[in-house]
Each structure stands twice: as C-alpha cells, then as structure tokens.
Amino acid sequence: MSQFWSPIVHSLTPYVPGEQPKVDKLIKLNTNENPYPPSVKVIETLKQVADDKLRLYPDPNADALKQRIADYYKVERNQVFVGNGSDEVLAHTFQALLKHEKPLLFPDITYSFYPVYCGLFGIDYLTIPVNDEFAININDYPQESGAIIFPNPNAPTGKLLALEDIRQLLREHAHKVVVVDEAYIDFGGTSAIALVNEFNNLIVIQTLSKSRSLAGLRVGFAIGHSALIEGLERVKNSFNSYPMDRFAIHGAIASFDDEESFQTTCQTIIDTRNELTNTLEKLGFNVIPSAANFVFASHPEFDAEEIAQKLRDRAIIVRYFNKPRIDQYLRITIGNNDENTKLCAALKEIIC
Amino acid sequence: MSQFWSPIVHSLTPYVPGEQPKVDKLIKLNTNENPYPPSVKVIETLKQVADDKLRLYPDPNADALKQRIADYYKVERNQVFVGNGSDEVLAHTFQALLKHEKPLLFPDITYSFYPVYCGLFGIDYLTIPVNDEFAININDYPQESGAIIFPNPNAPTGKLLALEDIRQLLREHAHKVVVVDEAYIDFGGTSAIALVNEFNNLIVIQTLSKSRSLAGLRVGFAIGHSALIEGLERVKNSFNSYPMDRFAIHGAIASFDDEESFQTTCQTIIDTRNELTNTLEKLGFNVIPSAANFVFASHPEFDAEEIAQKLRDRAIIVRYFNKPRIDQYLRITIGNNDENTKLCAALKEIIC
Description:
homodimer; alpha/beta; Aspartate Aminotransferase, domain 1; Aspartate Aminotransferase, domain 2; seven-stranded mixed β-sheet; five-stranded mixed β-sheet; 36% helix; globular
C-alpha cells in the first residue's frame, strides 16, 4: 500500500503464474512447458540473430513475422497481430475489444488470468458455469452481454469445444466480439482460425510457448478480421512501439518454417498423453478427456492437494488449484517418456 | 473504426516511432540508436542463450537481472523493476503511479509518447512550457498537480536539468510521484538514481537501448522506493507474467558485466557529439547544448523540413517534428565517425 499508487492499484489481485523453481533436477510438470526442445533450425537462427544488429531497433510492426503467420494460416497480413507472449496479446485484447457497457462472459472454470485483466482494465464480467463434465454449453451464454472469451481447449481442464459449437456461438452472438484462446489447440483440436473469414466478430489467439517449445522466447499472436486487428494495433501502439525483440521476430519465423519438427513434437505429446491417461485410469483416477499438453485428473479416494504434496516430496511438481469445483483435481503437464514413467511410478507408490 | 472496439480505442492517437526503413545503405540518424555494437561479451552470452532451455518459461520476476542492476547502482533488489524496453516500463508507470485526481504535469516539449499514455489510461494532464532556451524551470510546476514526469536529458532537445534542481523539485513536491525518464543520461548527465534513497516519491527510468547498444533486445528498468516498485509489479503481474524473455534477461546481465565496453562507447559518442556540434555551429546552426546521443539544431536561414528532405535525397535520415516551437529544428543522432563525416559533407552541400 502506498499513497503514491494510482487508485486502481490498491484493488488489483495480480495473477500468480505456476512456480518456476530455481533448482535443477526437478521433474517440472506444473506449467505446461513442452518437454522437447525447439526445432534445431530455430536455435540455429537465434544464434545468428545474436550479432551487432542488436544495436538497432527491431521492426516496430514485426511485418516479416506477421506475413509468415499469415502465409501459414492462409490469411492476410493485416489479419495478424503479434505480441510478447499470448498473455500480452490477451491483455491488449481485453483493453481494446472486451470493455463494453454490458458484461464480458467467460466460463467459471477457465484461465485464471481473465478476471485479473478485468480488474486491471475495469471490465465488468459474468462467469458462466461449465457443466459437471466441465463442458462449455454455448446455450448458457446470454444475449445480454458485451463480449465472450474462452480457451479452447479450456484451461485447466483440457476439454475441447467442437468447431460447430463455436460457429453456432459466433452466429448467435454476431454483434459482439468472441475470443477463442487457443494456447493448446495444436495438441489435437481444430483451430477456429478456419472461421475468421466467415465471421467479422471472431479473434483467435495462439502462442508459440507450448506446441512450438518456445516459452522462453515470448511470442503470441491473434488472427481475426482486419478491423479487430486494427483495434489491437491502436492499443499496442499507445502502449509499447517495439514489444517484439529481434530474437522473438526471427525465432518465431524460423519455427513456422520447420513444419516437420512441429508436427513430430505435437504427435509425440499426444501419444504420451494417451498412454498417461490409460495409466492414470488404471490407478483409479478420473481423467477429463484432454486435447491439450496436460491432463486434469482427480482420484475418488485420495485428496488432490495431498497427492501434489507427496509428488513434490519425490521431486515432481504438478499444478494444484485451491479453487471451488476443481480443488480435487491435479493438472499434470505431459512430460517426456522418462518423466512420464517416473510420474507413474511415484503415483503408484502414493496410491497403492 | 469498428463497432467491436472498446469505446476508448476510438479516441486513441497512437505514438508513431521514428521510421525503421527496410532498405540497407541508409545513414540512419533518426532514432537515436547507438552507432557502435554491443559488448562482444553480450553477443557471446546471447549465442549461449540460444539453446534447448528456450522450451522453458523465463523467471517471471527476472530476479537475476534485478539483482545485477541493484548491485550496479547500489540499491536493493526490491527497488528495481524491469520491462520490455523503457516504453513498457513507462506504460506501467503511467497506469500504476501517475493517474490521480489532479493532473499529471510534463513539459510542453518532451517525449511525445507521454500524452499517448495519458490517452490510453485516461490520465488528465497539463503541459508546462519550457523556456526559450528549452530549459525546464522547476518553479513553473504548480503544487496543484497529481504527479510529474520529464525526461532528463529532455527529448528531443537533449537539454539537461541539474541534479540540484531535481532534488529541489522532489522536496517541493514531496507528496506526489516524480518520474525522471533517463533514456539518455549515460551520455554526460548525472543520474537521479543517486537520490532514490533520499526521496520516497522518486522513480528513475532507464533503458539499455541507447548507451548499451541493445535497442534490438528490448530492456528497460526503473529504480525507486520499494513501495513504488511494488505498485509497478502489481500492474505488471496483472498484465503479463513474463515480459522478459531469456535473451533479454541474460543479455542485459552480460551488459552490466562489461563496464569497459560501456564506458568506451559512451565516451566516443560524447566526443563525436562535441565535434559534430562544432561543425554544425561553423555551418551557422544553432545547436542546443546536448547531454544525449543526439543534437537538436536549427538554422536561421534554412527551413528544417527542407534540410531533412535534402538529407534524405542523399540517403541520410534525421528526425523532423512538425510541431509548435520545434518545427525549425532537426534531431540528429550521433553516428560513427564515417557517418558523421558524410552528414557534415551533405549539410555543407545543402547550406553553402
């Protein structure tokens, strides 16, 4: 508390990201990082970026990266917005497109940064309960609202909403912005980017942190109608001219240039997820069907927080949320085969 | 214009950064970039950062970098805030510390991003005219105000305010935040960081873009009382958990580790600035005494915009602002010796 703060600061409840422990040798399954390294071509490119040109500003518009993403998704460059991780893209989206007289809608169980953004920008919001299987029912979203946002697959459940449902939602809420936050879409879902030329009220947000193994580089992007993108650009250009450094711009381009590495990594994680789901179910866990690089699981006989603590005692960290409706679940990131094996062995010890 | 924009977006007038032309072989003296490369140790470090660890998130708090900056400036780690370039640090500062019932004050001739931030965050402001020599007179700053911000040296004039004046201003406005924006301080000024333990209402903001030749890396920081820094952290953690990527964190640390390279570069630019000032004065220019890596100059007989255009015809870009009081001035970045020689030759051609 300080007399010098702007009044809004007193009321903020900042987001708390998953722990980033500073010791090595932990099996870190708590922040949905990719267990596999980025493409060797990306690393190669990044080494080349480390040169004397760093004295120069990057392109404030990051046009080369926008063009590469536009080509990849077969849209126009002015339909692409880029930012310092999808969290920054989301922040600009909340400020530029989601503050209206009527409340913003999002699921009650969802990415816990959403209410934080609302606090920062003074956005009125209403949460809509997901059903008992954690599914979003689009018919529950009332017409009396200013905009809608949800992750797909949802976080922290991993539950996917079908593209047909999203199409129907867009049709029924044609006069408000609908944001589909697709941080995990590459692990088995179909992107709503397929719909951006059909609906002028749709924004799709993605990140290179998960499926492209580049959490350490901070690159996210949004794709939508050019008028929505222009709204984002206006806010971005009133906030920070150069959010994308030279590494972010060129590393991200290189990532989209190596389709094979990307596909192989995603498929391996999907396969491991299926194996892990089987093992967890054999151990008596209830596992929500996941389209993400994590599973969300609960055990009818063992307390989730206690399991998390016992895993931590064995140097394995998973994410536990002490929140209504999900306080008996663990969110477990899909690790590599070795991590997966060790996790399963530890869980067997704890449960059997 | 779009029906989908949040109302605030319609009224924004985004900042327009200096042009970043995509052709080579231009002499680029328009965005105050450092003509000399970053330390070879920084480049070396950055090449090492390009590895498989990029799959992992960076430390959301960038503690190692904060500690390095704290050690360098002999303050505590909780007195340091870091961000994606000083523009992002400024953005968070405007939102976290400068929005009050009474208006924010800044000079009429100053960094033109300030009114843009005010527009974005709905901050009421009042500009205080600098005098005819472009000097800030601290006695002109009224008590009836919510906070004060100014660059030192000022932009785009390069004019320095003495530390004693800043101390007096802090004393006379002890109940409001005073922000000293020191993007150019390393080129001959004395930093107000010396005063942060004396005044709990002072925030000093710096960047690695200019004096440390790292515009392409995007690192800025703020130093002040821990309660002010906490206000910034609260806003930052409600906006983006991980603004500093792995390159920014480790490259910046390496830069503070190479004092010799830093000092040599700054001194060379100061020497070149003095030479350029002499030459310009011989050509009849009026040059404002500069403590920055640029000079601000006007010619009594030649129109500034016309000179800028004629320089551009010769593949030299300088910055021209079509704004009241300064529309007969050019802001010329200090280049290397070769660029300096070519600039002077071109100006001789244009003027003689």
